[in-house]
Amino acid sequence: MEFSTQLSLFSTRFLGIFIEAVSFLLLGTIVSGLIEVFVRKEDIARLLPRNPFAAIVAGSFLGFLFPVCECGVVPVTRKLYQKGLPVAVGVAFLLAAPVMNPIVFASTYAAFGFGPILIGRFVITCIMAVAIGLIFSLQRNPIKMLHPRALMAMAGGSGAAAPQPSAPRLSVGQGIVRAARVATDEFFDMGRYLVMGTALAAGMQTFLSQEQIRALASDPSMSAVAMAIMAFVLSICSTTDAILALSFANFGFPSGSLLTFLTFGPMVDIKATLMYLSVFKRRVVFYMVILPLLMSLLFGIFINLNVRF
């Protein structure tokens, strides 16, 4: 393939991924700005269950209140941390929200109908998010996990944030102006990670042979690995990835491998991984990549070997 053709293909794929993702990043930053202005630390404390396990489970379902994909969920999580959200609950929300929301439910239903793929996607995502959240709850000092920008006014020594005392509530007009300013700052801060991640994803799509990966569809184990690689490389938004998964099903990929694609991809892809670096330290980001990868492969391979649907 000539260089000019590759460059044209790269540009097309870059713009396709970026245009799809940037709208959700904008939505996430707007929600982040509204949280900054209208949500107090007392509101977070009142809404979350006091039991740590119940709080983590609740965190995995917060996506139904904040329906954002893997791009928009990062600025929302960072702002919730500054409002007092426990770190482990934020991890569960961060990993689950790109799937556990009504938009993704509708798109998955449109692609596969109400059946094992739809149910399996939501059940496996919830199990993975809660399990990983529980693992992170073992570390109760946020200073050891969070990026300095995410810490802001947080104090170490507990699993939850300790923001500064809440300021008096603003009027609606003042609040909207303030929220817009916060959202603008968040958008440009997170946007650089989105651009870098999009460029990497487009580059790997351009130079990686997808046909060779699809040739692995007949192997129960390697097909799941191939789907995990495709999910990470393609960086498809969780609101539309079910349609792509349906096309992989037509290539002969088994159900377990499709579920690996539909659960691992929304949690971890190239652009999301880079955006995680704005919230967590590098070592933590490594665990946030490897744990979902291993768990999604375990579920996918087990289903391929033992379940037929």
Verbal overview:
The protein has 309 residues and is an all-alpha fold. The chain has one domain. Helix content is 71%, strand content 0%. The protein is built from 15 helices and no strands. The protein has helices at 3-38, 41-47, 52-60, 73-82, 87-96, 102-112, 116-137, 148-151, 172-207, 210-214, 220-234, 241-250, 255-267, 270-276, 282-306. Helix 1 runs parallel beside helix 4 (73-82). The longest helix is centred in the N-terminal third of the chain and has 36 residues, at 3-38. The termini are far apart. The model is unreliable at 155-165 (pLDDT under 50).
Topology:
Layout lengths: L2 H36 L2 H7 L4 H9 L12 H10 L4 H10 L5 H11 L3 H22 L10 H4 L20 H36 L2 H5 L5 H15 L6 H10 L4 H13 L2 H7 L5 H25 L3
Helix pairs in contact: 1-4, 1-9, 3-5, 3-7, 4-5, 5-7, 6-12, 7-13, 7-15, 9-14, 11-13, 11-15, 12-13, 13-15
Structure described in brief:
71% of the residues lie in helices and 0% in strands.
Which spans of ≥5 residues are poorly predicted at pLDDT below 50?
155-165
What distance separates the N and C termini? 40 Å
What's the helical proportion of residues?
Answer: over 70%
Oligomeric composition of the shown chains:
single chain
Tell the overall outline.
globular
Give structural attributes.
309 residues; mainly alpha; 71% helix; globular
